[in-house]
Amino acid sequence: MQVNVLFFASLVDKTGTSSWAPFLHSRSTVEDMKRILIKQFPACADLLPVCHVALNQEYVKGNPVLQESDEIAIFPPVSGG
């Protein structure tokens, strides 16, 4: 199955792109996708554990199972004022 992953802020710098469309095995989870993401973009490894994840425009916690064509948005923490 294929999903669409959107990157924001410093993740765009670390990946060199704002989106990525990996092919995953059926019944893959968010954590499975993160492992593949780190293999593809190793510079993200240090940042991913503190990122927020939205699945189909809703923030998620835990490790939900992904479906074909899901949209996963990954937001690194931001600071400033």
What is the compact description of this entry?
This protein has 81 residues and is α+β, with helices and mostly antiparallel strands. It has helices spanning 10-15, 30-40, and strands spanning 4-7, 19-20, 52-55, 58-60, 71-75. It has a five-stranded mixed beta sheet with strand order 2-1-5-3-4.
Write the layout of secondary structure elements.
Elements: E1 4-7, H1 10-15, E2 19-20, H2 30-40, E3 52-55, E4 58-60, E5 71-75
Parallel strand pairs: 1-5
Antiparallel strand pairs: 1-2, 3-4, 3-5
Structure, described:
This protein has a single domain (4-75), classed as Roll (Ubiquitin-like (UB roll)). It contains 2 helices and 5 strands; from the N terminus they run E-H-E-H-E-E-E. With 81 residues, it is α+β, with helices and mostly antiparallel strands. A hairpin with a 2-residue loop joins strand 3 and strand 4. The mean pLDDT is 95. The chain is globular. The chain has a 5-stranded mixed β-sheet with strand order 2-1-5-3-4.
Give a short account of the largest sheet: 5 strands, mixed
In terms of DSSP E residues, the strand content is 15-25%
CATH topology: Ubiquitin-like (UB roll)
Helix content: 10-25%
Strand order of the largest sheet: 2-1-5-3-4
Please give the alpha-carbon distance between the first and last residues. Answer: 40 Å
CATH superfamily: Beta-grasp domain
Count of distinct strands:
5
Note the quaternary state here.
single chain
Q: Using the alpha-carbon principal axes, give the shape.
A: globular
Query: Which structural class do the helices and strands define?
Result: alpha+beta
Number of helices: 2
Unreliable spans are none
Quickly count the domains.
1
- Please tell me how large the radius of gyration is: 12 Å
CATH C-level name: Alpha Beta
CATH architecture: Roll
**Average residue pLDDT:** 95
In N-to-C order, the SSE pattern is EHEHEEE
